[in-house]
Amino acid sequence: MTDTTTIDRPAAGTTCVAALYHFATFPRYETFRAPLQAVCDENGIKGTLLIAREGINGTVAGTDEAIARLLAFLRAQPEFAKLEHKESRASKMPFLRMKVRLKKEIVTMGVEDIDPNKIVGTYVDPKDWNALISDPETIVIDTRNDYETAIGIFKGAVDPKTKTFREFPDWVKNNTGLHNKPKIAMYCTGGIRCEKATAFMKEQGFDDVYHLKGGILKYLEEVPAEESLWEGACFVFDERVSVEHGLKEGNHRLCHACRNPITAEEVNSPYYEEGVSCSHCYDTRTEADRERYRQRQHQIALAKQRGQKHIGG
To answer: For the chain, where are the alpha helices, taking DSSP H only?
Structure first.
């Protein structure tokens, strides 16, 4: 049955959402997992934090006081003393649980010995970004994946249409046209992927490489909509799905069958069934797949009726 309701979300909320990352030499990351999980649990914080030998990355949510305590704890660690973060608001808690995960990389590129602490592109503040990407001598590259770029991108940017960040190095190597202009400007959601991507580009022999400091999130926070060169919404990895200028919650849902963001118009598509299918995935799933998704969605609905959260949803 198709859901024909429109998506109506509040512009602001009481929950603080903090996106953070920091590249650092962090050999003790394995022993840091338990105390970090404990601080988050004690303060009612939910979300995901990835820690690895190369640093920390993640997005978490909680009360303002809880997030402040977590950030103070992180910055008290010598490796993360200069950690920066970006805050936005959510109308409700956008995560179901708290996970601290040990990883080989805090953002997975799959290329050995890429270290933004040793070599990296030039940071560009949001206020200076428009001038750089409007320069005809600049190639602008979106380092995000295809499901993210589908709902928003900077005007004139090149979209690599990658499925994962692991595909980015090969995309660069196969696009000799990137050498046609002297400047390369790169961006991503919060800054981490483009920071690692610029390190890779420098290793590949590109000299004038730049990246947007704080990513799209910082740009949408600081640059007025009337001056913006951003087109669309910015995908975020939590239940809000997207944010817009001023970091207000966007007007997208997530298809829980294929994980693609969908618009209000796509919700009204005959291919959309909540938790089961959408116009992006209907033709790539079997009826057996959809029946399995329906059973999952039924369990989610039952849990909701009981006032519980279905973790598998």
So the answer is: 29-42, 64-75, 126-134, 146-149, 168-173, 192-203, 215-222, 264-267, 287-305
